[in-house]
Amino acid sequence: MMMEDFEKVLFTPEQIAEKVRAMGEQIASDYEGREILMVGILKGASVFMTDLARSIHLPVAFDFMIVSSYGAGTDSSGQVTIRKDMDTDIRGRHVIICEDIIDSGITMKRLLEILRERQPASLALCALLSKPSRRVAEVAIDYCGWEVPDEFIVGYGLDYAERYRNIPAIGVLKRSVYS
Ligand code: IMP
Ligand code: MG
């Protein structure tokens, strides 16, 4: 089983479900009367976003972007490129960006700058996980699930070399797998 590559489990499927439900309720109460456009950053946010959107009892439109993250390594490159843009014109829309994890923050800081220029009515950031000790670029996370230590984390959408995304738990990957 792939879970043999886990050094430890950080969050069980039950803990994740409870957290995602609470985040969804908070978003629903904050956005009452508005229509949300949720933009997931592929591929990592895909699992989280589909669960999160189903816990928000308001209309939620979906779109997706692919933003550069080079190679199969565990460190984020400083370069940020939009590899697939969303289809929606976000001018005047209430946009929530959905991300799996904010690590250095480099990708998200630049992406938020680009999206703000498109003049959405509002722009919020929702991330399931954050590694504050790794932050290089300052980004405000409006909805954050958990802060995690500086370790390589996989599962529930997060990958290492495209593996482990479909594990329903979140855990720390054994160092021996990637070093
Ligand atoms: P940042 O620009 O350094 O914040 O990188 C953000 C992206 O790097 C995330 O969207 C993830 O795809 C990836 N990433 C950062 N840390 C991890 C991790 O611990 N496990 C899996 N992917 C990660
Ligand atoms: Mg990613």
Provide an overview of this structure.
This protein has 179 residues and is α/β, with parallel strands linked by helices. The protein has 4 helices and 9 strands; from the N terminus they run βαβαβββαββββα. The strands form 2 sheets. Strands 4-3-2-5-6-7 form a 6-stranded mixed sheet, with helices on both faces. The mean pLDDT is 93. Magnesium ion binds at residues 44, 69, 100. Inosinic acid (IMP) binds at residues 44, 69, 76, 99-108, 152-154, 158.
Fill in the keyword field for this structure:
three-stranded antiparallel β-sheet, binds inosinic acid, six-stranded mixed β-sheet, 9 strands, 179 residues, single chain, binds magnesium ion, alpha/beta
